[in-house]
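User: Please predict the structure of the protein below. I'd like the answer in structure-token form so I can feed it into my own downstream comparison script.

Assistant: Understood. Taking the following sequence of 268 residues as input:
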Amino acid sequence: MNYRKAAEAADYIKTIVPDISADTAILTGTGMVGIPDMMENKTRISYADIPYFPESTVKSHAGECIIGTIGGKQVILFSGRFHYYEGYKMEQIVFPVRVIKILGVTNLFMTNASGGLSEDYNEGDIVVVSDHINLLPRNPLRGKNDTRFGIRFPDMLDAYSKELRAKIKTKMGDAYKEGVYVVMPGPSLETPAEYNYAKMIGGDLIGMSTVPEVIAAVHCELKVAVFAIVTNICYPIEKLEKTTVEEVIAAVSGSAGKLNQILEEMCS
């Protein structure tokens, strides 16, 4: 949990954009496009240029930090995340979260692509995550705690901010859905028995990301909201069909426009 490295990365970003005053950041997952088009006065910084930033190796993750304004308010966009299945350590996966903490951000919105375990979900639905079940073998807070990020034992009761979810609900109206997200290590998609297990333990959504960043964000005292786009139906088991990454990307892209509108309203 190296504060110095995160501080150096934040300092580098501030050499490119000295007047950072953003209180909101967005961290996007698979297939999310169009957010940069909503931004004005934007500056792009490649992850490759930011000290200690890992390289995103996943298709459709752009791998850049974009700072600009949405509705007249400055926003920091991290386009592309890092995953446990890529071989990264937890401290690398959550590194962007710790950087935005040092940059002064207080609200973090994230997106992901998820399998749907609820019979109320359809492909393309936008679901707001209300809670999670962590089935990853490592926790990003494991090891010596650095109190400059947060306390040793952060409480996860309100990990997915009730305040932000209430605001999102007013924007989405009758289209609002929420659910519990189950994270698996990946990169192999889950077996039918694993989908069934995830459903039995209380899951509505399933995926391979997001939870490490949420834990780190709560540790850093950020308010978090996560939008999951349902890319394939995983329950009941009889509805299972083989899924490719191209199909996942296509499903996310089909709903990205609607999600972008919600994000624009939340950031303005």
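That's the full token string. The beta strands are 24-28, 40-46, 64-70, 73-79, 107-116, 126-134, 178-183, 205-207, 223-233.
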